[in-house]
Design a protein that fits this description.
heterotrimer; A mainly alpha; B mainly alpha; C mainly alpha; B: mainly alpha; 2 domains; two-stranded antiparallel sheet; 21 helices; 75% helix; C: mainly alpha; Helix Hairpins
Chain lengths: 624, 502, 105
């Protein structure tokens, strides 16, 4: 069964290739079939591998499939191999299944678009690149997938290229992540030179061998890889690209900017966690940065009026939770939250897309309202997703994973309680901002008329993901709810048993459940009193403006990076070096103009000059 | 003897093509195409049956030819082919084929003479890659330039005269410096050993040292720097590229620039090991400046062809950094990047040429929204822009990564700064895609998209760049023995900066 | 008693040369220009003969024959040019024959 692994990334790639070559001549249904089926079959294979794994995992809990040797030089050998272990298995399952559902959703959502086949080419390519990223056994091969998903994200954010703003958002997303990726590339170079291999497992083993705990080299290497991860996962200070990336089609946001690609940073760290364990200060920096990110993003989400931007900021914030878990070494908690987040955030985005479909692509929550009875399917799916995002206890998957993270953070010996407090506050704000959206969109008076209806290809993904949002949490439950440990048990061979703790303080435990409820209550009170509605129309004060702009990071970058670069471009545009070299020819022309005056055409004058010259020559010969 | 045929075939092809143009304009194209195919047929078997392991060490030459030419001055007609030259000659011939195809519709004046020049320029480049007598090398160096001058001056765009003269002055002037150095080297050898010779291998044994050696090396170095081109002697390139016809730009970018990198690898470094180490920091510095300078200027251009030209300068900066690390891995990267750049930039010039043919402008301000009208052209264009940006999985990335990896082992600072240079690369690449292909068209228009001929060309080039990106090993294997022989290890064990293969 | 046998002819040659040179520079009529050149050539020829006498060498006289030949050839060519110029420009003014000047002065 495992030997079919290579098919998982290959099938979507094949789909992309087929559509890329023949997409222009194929009918739309054929395009949709190829695009969806290629991912669907990959999902089936992946699931079979997963099921097979459950009973018959290899003894080492690792399966490696060598495809071919990519680069083989003395001192540098990079093989293209697929590395399947519990972590990549989990990622692969999520990517293919959620990817398939989103493909299915897209076939109806994008129907009639003039770039229908182009869309599926990009989306299939993305799935292939993402699978390569998670399955790569070599860091450089992972980097191929890493940049590949970046390019697909660029292409899909700018999918509707007629609007210059979309192109700008696409370029921004690519360039910001590219800056982070260069740090990662330098980290890869450092690892390659210092450790002599880039194949992840031997590399990590070698790192433990040669680098003492807390040494400068592992910190540097881990720090550089971390920057790459922060960029891809839209964490502070690289988060600015993600809200703008919402310019792409909504299913794209669901797949790339919520469920899969943006969690690549978390995956990278979990994959190389042995290296990060050697660098305690980097881990500390991760958790502090994560706490800042999740709070800032949650606050920013509180004042957005575009439903997709709310979700974008919530993604940044939720990935902040994953980084928080990573920072304290709770690898399985991070992966578990990745799993639940992938499901419920995909659901939220798809529901948002489904709403927009019926509202003439309206995305402003203040222009919606009263949709509860008009489009019940979207209402229920959005509600379930929101409950999970808000981490409402027991009924939602999000609560289990968030609770697991908070529990792990609490026990961190250094600044655990502080981080836990930040996480708790974040949970409160999260519940508040998402409830705000739910109340504004689905309750109250109808503001925009609803049109159209959903087909089965919209309904099925929503229902499946909604069910998932409620149920996947039960894979890993706290003690008083049965104490399932399926995720931890699955991941243990790969990341160790870190993250399992005895029950917390009953008070701390309870506050983790109460905070979301409190958040919902606050949102409801403010909704009843009409505060949200008034704040939207009132002149925003400075704080509100700051929050709305995502805390002004863009403005700062504009001043310190964009403007100097543009000034440089303007200054150099005409190639100053060329001016110097053209200067030589100008000088020659000047000289020519000066000398041509002597050419008068009169024989007598020439004879005179000949005489002067002869006399001068004789004089020099005689007197010198 | 086969090596002589490699030179004779394209030369005769050109000679035949010239008069045949008077009979029928399609004849020169067919003759050139056939000659290049024949050339490829001669080339491919040369590699056949040579196992990489057996190539290493002295016996790594695939073929040699040596005959006296001007014995009185110790000048011989010496040609040698190793893996490195083989790769570059194959690139030359393949790109030559594409230039013939791309000119099929573009050139309709004086077709015979055009193809003659094209073929002679190719023959000159092949000679450059083969010659291992320094005088002969210089001879081919000039042979390759003169026909190129005609190609630009006769079939170029608006300001072709100025561009052609600039091109000629730059390359000729720097070629003169090289000639001086060659003569100085030969005379020095004569003084010390009593035999006047221009033979590469004999000169290799007797390395000039000290200030004089440094000065002689500078002559080679500057000549190749101009040709590469590197900051600050790059200024002929953008203008020449802009004004040259598509085939001219393709040959310039894909082949002629590579002769400079080849020259550095084959002559400037091995002949002057000590002096090369002395100049390495400066060379790497110039390389790094070129990377940024080219990228920043590319971002600011309004002329798409100029943008591509400046991006070439940026890429050649990587090549320069890679060469002066004297590191085996970096040198492999240089070879890969040369080939990948030849393919991707060649394809980009073909794309720009096709756009110009349809829109009659290269001005980015007048493009925009081309994807709507020309989806096939635009997707190929975007693909090759992404390739030249160094998208992993495509050829250019392998080259850049190997260069950076090699450079990091020797000069980490240079490697890191060069890596940062990949950020502006993304900036200009994306702005080019945005301004040319994305956005909204300013006027309504309709053009024919890529036809069968153009699509086939692009597919072939695209397949080549993907193959190079995901399976570069065959190229690495072919290049390895030749490069191992050039890497200056044996003569300079005493030099502190020397490090290979770490 | 100073031997003036070669100083005097030398001085005479110098005077002749200067006369010829001044004539060449000052006169505009081409006939006089040619005559001035002849005078200068004569001066040189005289100098050769004097020098030959001074060092007792026949070379000076050989050179004299050469100079005479040269002068003859030169005057023949010069007169042809002069006649051609006269028909073209209808004047003998040398300053009028300035077609080789730069475009503007």
């Amino acid at each position: 069964m495992n030997n079919l692994l290579w098919l998982v990334p290959t099938l979507p790639l094949l789909g992309a290739l087929l559509l890329g070559l023949f997409g222009a001549v194929l009918p739309a249904w054929c395009t949709a079939l190829i695009g969806t089926a290629s991912v669907g079959i990959a999902a089936i294979i992946a699931s079979s591998i997963g099921i097979h794994w459950y009973g018959n995992a290899p003894a080492s809990h690792v399966f490696v499939q060598d495809l071919w040797s990519w680069i083989d030089l003395p001192h540098l050998s990079i093989g293209l191999s697929l590395y399947l272990d519990p972590v990549s298995l989990l990622m692969m399952l999520v990517i293919t299944t959620v990817g398939f559902l989103i493909h299915l959703f897209s076939t109806e959502y994008m129907a009639g678009d003039e770039g229908y086949s182009r869309y599926f080419v990009y989306l299939n390519l993305f799935v292939a690149a993402m699978l390569l990223l998670v399955l790569a056994s070599d860091l450089l091969v992972m980097f191929v997938g890493w940049e590949g998903v970046g390019v697909c994200s660029y292409l899909l954010v700018g999918f509707w290229f007629h609007k210059p703003a979309n192109g700008y958002a696409a370029r921004k997303s690519f360039v910001v992540t590219r800056i982070a990726d260069i740090a990662m590339l330098v980290g890869i170079l450092l690892l390659a030179v210092k450790l002599g291999t880039l194949s992840i497992q031997p590399m990590l083993a070698r790192a433990v061998e040669v680098w003492p705990h807390g040494d400068v080299w592992p910190s540097l290497a881990a720090g550089l890889l971390l920057i790459g991860g922060l960029g891809k996962s839209a964490q502070v200070p690289f988060q600015t690209w993600l809200p703008d990336a919402m310019a792409g089609p909504t299913p794209v946001s669901a797949l790339i900017h919520a469920a899969t690609m943006v969690t690549a940073g978390v995956y990278l760290i979990v994959r190389t966690h042995v290296l990060f364990l050697l660098a305690p200060d980097v881990l500390m920096a991760i958790s502090i940065g994560a706490a800042i990110t999740l709070l800032l993003a949650a606050l920013a989400a509180l004042v957005q009026s575009d439903i997709k931007r709310v979700l974008a900021y919530s993604t940044i914030s939720q990935i902040g939770y994953m980084f928080l878990a990573v920072g304290v070494g709770a690898w399985s908690a991070a992966m578990f939250h990745f799993l639940t987040h992938a499901v419920f955030k995909a659901l939220l985005f798809l529901s948002a897309g489904a709403i927009a479909m019926r509202l003439h692509h309206e995305q402003n929550i203040f222009k919606m309202g009263g949709l509860r009875n008009k489009i019940p399917l979207a209402f229920w799916s959005f509600l379930i997703g929101s409950a999970s995002l808000a981490a409402l206890p027991v009924v939602s998957a999000g609560s289990f994973s968030k609770e697991m993270i908070l529990g792990s953070v609490w026990f961190d010996p250094t600044i655990g309680p502080l981080l836990w407090g930040a996480g708790l506050l974040g949970a409160l704000i999260t519940a508040t901002y998402i409830s705000r959206v739910v109340f504004l969109v689905f309750f109250g008076p109808v503001r925009t008329e609803v049109s159209g209806r959903y087909g089965v290809r919209i309904a099925v993904p929503l229902i499946v993901l909604a069910a998932g949002s409620m149920l996947v949490g039960w894979l890993e439950t706290p003690g008083f709810l049965g104490g399932n440990r399926m995720v931890t048990v699955l991941l243990r061979p790969a990341v160790g048993a870190v993250g399992i703790h005895p029950a917390m303080d009953i008070l701390a435990d309870a506050s983790g459940y109460i905070a979301p409820l409190l958040g919902v209550a606050i949102a409801f009170t403010l909704y009843r009193s009409g505060y949200w509605q008034r704040a939207a129309t009132a002149q925003p004060n400075a704080l509100r403006r700051l929050m709305h702009s995502g805390f002004g990071f863009d403005a700062v970058y504009d001043v310190i990076l964009v403007r100097p670069f543009m000034a440089l471009v303007r200054g150099l545009r005409n190639d100053p070096v060329d001016l110097v070299i053209t200067g030589i020819s100008v000088l020659a022309i000047r000289l020519h103009r000066a000398l041509r005056r002597s050419q008068v055409g009169q024989v007598r004058r020439y004879a005179g000059w000949v005489m002067v010259g002869s006399i001068a020559t004789v004089a020099i010969l005689v007197f010198a | 003897m086969i090596l002589v045929w490699l030179l004779v075939v394209p030369f005769l092809g050109g000679l035949l093509a010239w008069p045949s143009g008077r009979v029928h304009p399609v004849l020169p194209r067919v003759i050139s195409f056939a000659a290049l195919l024949l050339e490829l047929g001669l080339l491919l078997p040369l590699l056949h049956g040579t196992a990489p392991a057996s190539l290493i060490a002295p016996g790594h030459w695939l073929a040699t030819f040596n005959a006296p030419w001007i014995p009185a001055f110790g000048i011989s007609f010496r040609l040698d082919l190793d893996g490195l030259s083989w790769l570059l000659i194959v690139l030359t011939v393949v790109i030559g084929l594409f230039s013939v195809v791309v000119s099929w519709r573009e050139i309709d004046e004086n077709v015979g003479f055009f193809h003659a020049n094209l073929m002679w320029s190719l023959a000159g480049s092949i000679g450059v890659f083969l010659a291992l007598d320094l005088f002969l090398f210089f001879f081919f160096w000039e042979v390759m330039l003169v026909p190129m001058y005609f190609v630009i001056a006769i079939w170029g765009h608006e300001n072709r005269r100025r561009a052609a003269i600039k091109f000629f002055l730059f390359t000729q002037g720097s070629g003169l410096l090289m000639l001086l150095s060659i003569l100085a080297l030969a005379f020095l050898h004569d003084q010390q050993t009593g035999t006047l010779t221009f033979d590469y291998f004999k000169l290799l044994e007797n390395q000039p040292t000290g200030t004089f050696g440094y000065l002689i090396m500078l002559g080679f170095f500057i000549a190749f720097l101009v040709k590469l081109p590197s900051f600050p002697v790059h200024t002929w390139l953008p203008e020449t590229h802009t004004e040259a016809p598509t085939a001219g730009s393709v040959i310039l970018a894909s082949i002629l620039l590579k002769t400079a990198a080849y020259g550095l690898l084959r002559f400037a470094v091995p002949l002057f090991v000590a002096a090369s180490h002395q100049i390495a920091p400066i060379a790497m510095g110039l390389g790094v400046i070129s990377i940024f300078y080219g990228a920043i200027l590319a971002y600011g251009q309004n002329d798409l062809k100029k943008l591509v030209a400046y991006s070439s300068i940026s890429h050649m900066g990587f090549v320069l950094v890679g060469i002066y690390t004297f590191n085996a891995i970096a040198w492999q990267g240089v070879v890969i990047l040369m080939i990948a750049h030849g393919i991707s930039t060649g394809a980009l010039f073909i794309t720009v040429g096709s756009i110009q043919k349809r829109l009659h402008t290269r001005d980015l301000g007048q493009m925009g929204g081309l994807w709507t009208d020309l989806p096939r052209l635009s997707s190929f264009g975007a693909f090759f822009i992404l390739a030249s940006m160094g998208l992993p999985g495509l050829g250019n990335f392998v080259g850049e990564f190997l260069i950076l990896r090699g450079a990091y082992a020797v000069a980490p600072t240079a490697a890191i700064i060069a890596a940062i240079g990949l950020i502006p690369a993304a900036l200009y690449s994306l702005i080019a895609i945005q301004r040319a292909f994305h956005g909204e068209a300013s006027t309504t228009r309709s053009f024919p998209d890529f036809g069968l001929r153009e699509t086939a060309m692009m597919l072939a080039l695209g397949a080549a760049i993907i193959a190079l990106g995901i399976y570069p090993q065959p190229v690495l294997n072919v290049a390895a023995p030749g490069l191992a022989n050039l890497t200056p290890t044996n003569t300079t064990a005493a030099l502190p900066v020397m490090r290979t293969g770490t | 008693m100073v031997d003036l046998s070669w100083q005097v002819p030398t001085a005479l040659a110098s005077v002749l040369f200067i006369i010829g040179l001044l004539g060449l520079l000052a006169r505009r009529s081409l006939v006089f220009v040619l005559m001035s050149i002849e005078i200068m050539l004569n001066a040189v020829a005289l100098l050769f003969v004097t020098a030959g006498m001074r060092w007792g060498s026949p070379d000076g006289q050989i050179m004299f024959i050469f100079v005479i030949n040269l002068a003859g050839a030169e005057i023949a060519l010069g007169l042809i040019l002069l006649l051609r110029l006269r028909t073209r420009l209808t004047t003998l003014d040398s300053d009028a024959a300035n077609l080789l000047r730069d475009v503007q002065v």
